[in-house]
Write a structure and sequence with these properties.
alpha/beta; Metallo-beta-lactamase, Chain A; Rossmann fold; Ubiquitin-like (UB roll); 3 domains; 8-stranded mixed sheet; 6-stranded mixed sheet
C-alpha cells in the first residue's frame, strides 16, 4: 500500500521443517494422522492475519512511508525516533495539520486544522466511501482525537462546499468539537440537512457568509476568514482565505475554471489575485484531484444542455431517463430548461436528489420553470414523449433508482424497449464494473443507452463536465497567486506528488517550500521559515448503514470470513462427567458445504469425541483452555485437509447436575452475572418491555466525483 511497512510472511518450504526430528505424538488419532506440522499451520494463519490486517488498515496511517523529495525531510524517511530528536519550536508557531484527506486510499475524509498560539480553526469535515474492500462499511470519518483534546481552542468550523467528502462527517463530530459554523448559504443548507440525521441533538451556531461582498469575519484573536467564489460541480463552492499573524493562507477547496457558469457566478480569480498582490500568499493549499489530466476544460454546462436537447429531438416519442450525481444542481437546472423548450415534464427520483433539490430551492440556487415538474406517480399518466425522469444511479449503485427501474423493483417505472437512458456522468474509478452491469441490464430490456465519451456511437455529447481543474488550470492558479509555500491537498499520494512537481516545474515554487504530506503531518511556520515537524494522531472511524460505529476487530472478522469462511462446533456435555450427550453439531458458513464433505466431517466428529473423553476426565477443568485447544487443533485438521484457515468457533454447553468439586470458572461467572441481572434489572410494568424507536439514517451514496480506490482501469475518458 505504501502507507506503512508490513512484514511479509515467508512461504512454506521443506527447509523450514526440523531435520531428523520425530513429530511428537498426540493422544488423538485424528491429529496424529495429519501430514501438516504445527509450524506450517501457524505460518498459514499468520499470512491470513497479515492479509486481513492489510485490507482492514488501509485507512490507518500511523507512520507513513513517504520518501518523496517533497516530504519535508529531503527525501529521507521520517520516523518516530526522528520526531523525538527534533527540538521544540519556541514562541508562537503557525501549525497546519491535515486531519484527513491527504495521501489516503481514495479521496474523502477531507479535514484541515490550522492552529496559532491557543486558537484553532477547522476547515471541512467530510467522510470517505471505502469501497468493496470494507464489507458492511458505508463510510469512514476522520479520527479527531487531537481536536477533541484541544476543543477549548477551536474558534470556528468553516466549510468550502456541500459535497459529502467535505461535510458528511460533521453530524458525527459537531457535538464533540462545538464551534461557530461558517460557509456560503447553499453550503450551510447542505450541512443543516445532514445534521437532521444526527442523533446527538446538538444544534450548531450557523453563520452565512457572502462570497460576493468579500466579507471578512474575525474569529478569535489570531484569525480572520474570507470566502472567495470558485466554480465546482455544486453551487456556492468557495475557497477559504485565512489571515493569520504570520500571513495569509488559502485553502482552495474543490474548483474548476468555467467561462460561462449556469448561475453566472464565475471563479473570482481577480479577488484572489488582489489578495496575493496586496498581502501576499504565505501558504497555498491546493486540491489535486485532476492535476494529472492534461490541458483544460473544453466545454461547459451549456454545452451539456445542447446535448440534452439533441437527445430530446432524436427521441421525440420516448421516455427519457437521465442519471447524474445528486448534487449536480446546475445540471438539473439546464435539464429543466431544455425540457421546457421541448414541452416535456420532469420528475425527480432518488432520496438524496430530492433532498438536495429542496435545499437548493430554499437557498435560491435553482429556478424551477412553471408547469414542468411532476410527481413520479403522475408520470405513468403521461404519453412517453412527454416524460423526462432525472434520477440517481449513474454509478451503478445496486439499490439506486436506476437499477431498481431496470430490475422492475421500482414502484412506478419499469424499463421498456422504447426508453432512452442517458448517463450524464463518468464512472468513478472502481465503479466501472457496476456501471457496465447496469448498462447491460438496461440494454437487455431493449432500451437505448447513451453514455458520455461515446459520441462516435450515438452522435451525442458531451454529457458530463468534471468539477475539478486540469493541469493547465492549476498552472494558471498557482502563477496568479505566487505563494511562498505550497501544499497539495485533496488527493491520493500520486496526485499530491504530481501536483508538487507541477508547482516546481511550471510555477517556480522552490522545492524546499513544497510539502507533500500525509494525514497527520504537522507543518510549522515561523518568521524564520517552514518545516514539517512531527505528527498528530489520525485514522478513521467506520460506520455501517445504520449509522453505528464498526470496530476494526469486527471489520477484520468480516474480511476473514469473506475470504476463508467460518466453522462452528457445538458440544453438549453432561456437567460433572463430561460425557457427550449428543453427537457434535457442526456449522459451516462460507467454508465448505457439509453434505459434500462427509469424510472431513467424520474426521472432525471422531476428533471431538476423543478430545472430550480425555479433556473432561480430570478433576479440574478450565473451559477456556479446552476451547483454545479445540480452536487450534480443529484449525490444524482443517488446514491439513483444505489448505484454508477459517474462523473456528468452539461452543461448549454443559447440562445436567453433578458438578461436585470440579473447577468451573466460566459457570461461576455466569451465575454471578445472572444474580446481578436479577438484582439490578427493573421489572417492566404489566410484563411489557417498552420499545425505543431508533431513527436510522438513509444509506449514504456518493454525491461527488471523489475516487473509489478498489479498482483502477485505464479508459479513454477522463474519470473525473
Amino acid at each position: 500500500m505504501g502507507q506503512r511497512r508490513l512484514a511479509n510472511a515467508a512461504q512454506d518450504d521443506q527447509s523450514k521443517r526440523p531435520q531428523g526430528q520425530q513429530r511428537q505424538k498426540s493422544n488423538n488419532s485424528v491429529l496424529n494422522s495429519t501430514n501438516t506440522r504445527k509450524g506450517e499451520v501457524f505460518r498459514a494463519q499468520r499470512r491470513t492475519s497479515e492479509n486481513v490486517n492489510l485490507r482492514a488498515s488501509q485507512h490507518m496511517i500511523s507512520v507513513p512511508v513517504n520518501k518523496s523529495i517533497y516530504n519535508g525531510y529531503g527525501g529521507r524517511q521520517f520516523s518516530l525516533a526522528d520526531h523525538k530528536k527534533q527540538p521544540k519550536t519556541k514562541g508562537p508557531v503557525l501549525k497546519i495539520m491535515p486531519v484527513g484527506g491527504l495521501g489516503e486510499m481514495g479521496i474523502g475524509k477531507n479535514m484541515m486544522a490550522i492552529e496559532y498560539d491557543d486558537e484553532i480553526i477547522v476547515i471541512d469535515a467530510g467522510f470517505l466511501f471505502p469501497g468493496a474492500d470494507y464489507p458492511g462499511i458505508n463510510y469512514i470519518t476522520p479520527d479527531i482525537t487531537y481536536l477533541e483534546e484541544n476543543k477549548h481552542k477551536i474558534r470556528a468550523q468553516v466549510f468550502t462546499h456541500g459535497h459529502l467528502d467535505h461535510i458528511g462527517a460533521y453530524r458525527h463530530l459537531a457535538d464533540k468539537i462545538p464551534a461557530p459554523v461558517y460557509g456560503s448559504k447553499f453550503t450551510l443548507g447542505m450541512v443543516q440537512r445532514t445534521m437532521e440525521e444526527a442523533t446527538s441533538g446538538f444544534t450548531p451556531d450557523y453563520h452565512v457568509m457572502d462570497p460576493e461582498s468579500h466579507e471578512r469575519v474575525q474569529v478569535g484573536d489570531n484569525f480572520s476568514i474570507e470566502l472567495v467564489r470558485v466554480n465546482h460541480s455544486i453551487p456556492d463552492a468557495t475557497a477559504v482565505v485565512v489571515r493569520t499573524p504570520l500571513g495569509v493562507l488559502v485553502d482552495t477547496g474543490d474548483w474548476r475554471f468555467e467561462d460561462n457558469p449556469v448561475d453566472g457566478k464565475k471563479f473570482d480569480l481577480d479577488r484572489l489575485t488582489e489578495i496575493a498582490t496586496k498581502e501576499g500568499i504565505l501558504l497555498l493549499m491546493n486540491e489535486s484531484t485532476n492535476c494529472e489530466s492534461d490541458g483544460t476544460h473544453t466545454h461547459g454546462e451549456f454545452d451539456i444542455q445542447q446535448s440534452m436537447g439533441q437527445v430530446m429531438e432524436k427521441y421525440p416519442n420516448s421516455r427519457l431517463i437521465l442519471s447524474c450525481f445528486s448534487s449536480q444542481i446546475h445540471r438539473m437546472q439546464v435539464i429543466l430548461e431544455e425540457a421546457k423548450k421541448h414541452d416535456r415534464k420532469v420528475a425527480f427520483a432518488g432520496y438524496s436528489m430530492i433532498q438536495n433539490l429542496e435545499v437548493a430551492l430554499r437557498a435560491g440556487t435553482i429556478k424551477i420553470p412553471k408547469d414542468v415538474v411532476v410527481k413520479m406517480e403522475d408520470v405513468v399518466k403521461l404519453p412517453d414523449g412527454k416524460v423526462t425522469i432525472v434520477c440517481t444511479g449513474s454509478q451503478g449503485e445496486f439499490n439506486a433508482v436506476l437499477n431498481r427501474m431496470a430490475s422492475g423493483a421500482h414502484k412506478f417505472i419499469k424499463i421498456k424497449n422504447s426508453d432512452v437512458v442517458v448517463f450524464s456522468s463518468n464512472p468513478i474509478p472502481g465503479n466501472e464494473k457496476y456501471v457496465v452491469r447496469t448498462v447491460d441490464g438496461l440494454m437487455r430490456e431493449g432500451s437505448d443507452v447513451i453514455q458520455n465519451g461515446k459520441t462516435h456511437l450515438t452522435g451525442i455529447g458531451p454529457l458530463h463536465l468534471s468539477g475539478h481543474g486540469y493541469y493547465d488550470d492549476h498552472v494558471k492558479l498557482i502563477n496568479a497567486l505566487n505563494p511562498t509555500y505550497y501544499m497539495p491537498i485533496h488527493g491520493e499520494f500520486h496526485m499530491l506528488v504530481h501536483n508538487a512537481e507541477l508547482a516546481e516545474k511550471e510555477c517556480g515554487v522552490k522545492r524546499d517550500n513544497i510539502f507533500v504530506c500525509d494525514s497527520g503531518d504537522v507543518i510549522e511556520i515561523t518568521p524564520d521559515g517552514a518545516k514539517k515537524n512531527g505528527r498528530i494522531p489520525v485514522g478513521g472511524i467506520m460506520y455501517d448503514d445504520s449509522g453505528a460505529i464498526v470496530s476494526e476487530v469486527v471489520l477484520k472478522d468480516r474480511i476473514h470470513m469473506a475470504s476463508e469462511g467460518m466453522f462452528v462446533v457445538v458440544l453438549t456435555v453432561q456437567r460433572g462427567s463430561g460425557r457427550l450427550m449428543t453427537s457434535p453439531d457442526i456449522i459451516s458458513r462460507g467454508f465448505i458445504y457439509l453434505r459434500d464433505s462427509e469424510e472431513l466431517m467424520g474426521m472432525i466428529r471422531q476428533y471431538l469425541k476423543q478430545k472430550v473423553a480425555r479433556s473432561f476426565s480430570g478433576k479440574k477443568i478450565d473451559l477456556d483452555v479446552i476451547k483454545k485447544e479445540l480452536k487450534d487443533e480443529i484449525t490444524h485438521i482443517l488446514y491439513d485437509q483444505t489448505r484454508r484457515t477459517p474462523i473456528v468457533i468452539p461452543v461448549i454447553n454443559e447440562i445436567g447436575g453433578g458438578g461436585g468439586g470440579q473447577q468451573r470458572e466460566n459457570n461461576g461467572g455466569r451465575q454471578q452475572q445472572r444474580g446481578a441481572n436479577a438484582q439490578g434489572a427493573a421489572k417492566p410494568v404489566g410484563g411489557i418491555v417498552p420499545k425505543t424507536q431508533r431513527k436510522f439514517p438513509p444509506r449514504q451514496v456518493p454525491d461527488t466525483e471523489s475516487t473509489d480506490p478498489t479498482l483502477r482501469a485505464k479508459t479513454d475518458v477522463r474519470a473525473y
